[in-house]
Amino acid sequence: RKLKRGSRDVFTKQKRSEVMSLIRAKDTKPELITRRALHALGYRFRLHVSALPGRPDIVLPKHHTIIQVKGCFWHGHQCLKGRMPHGNRDYWSAKIEGNRKRDKRNERTLRRLGWRVHAIWECEIRRSTSPRLSLRLAKLIERE
Hints:
Elements: H1 13-21, H2 29-40, E1 46-47, E2 58-60, E3 65-70, H3 89-112, E4 116-121, H4 122-127, H5 130-142
Parallel strand pairs: 3-4
Antiparallel strand pairs: 1-2, 2-3
């Protein structure tokens, strides 16, 4: 198959669709690591509460706290994993900017409802040791 000039995709359109469909929205590795750390600290939480704006990843009702586990690429973080792809830049910049606007809108609404909202980034989770991640999470939750 020939690639369009400037295109860097090595997959056919069908294969790319298949690959993209395997990307999870919930129960990602960073989310599972965060949940395990919270559980080990003794916190109890609910997951993806549909009654709240944006279906937050982790909801700690007792502490009125929400923790969003954000993927660096999908939410436009300023780290290596958050880099924009070279191919189809218009699509990806619009997609990621839309995600960021939606995140801000949901966060604003949640704060108005009285929730404390915290984000923890995929890169932060991956480079943290278990004790360091646990300490960070405990500080986020107990900060009143």
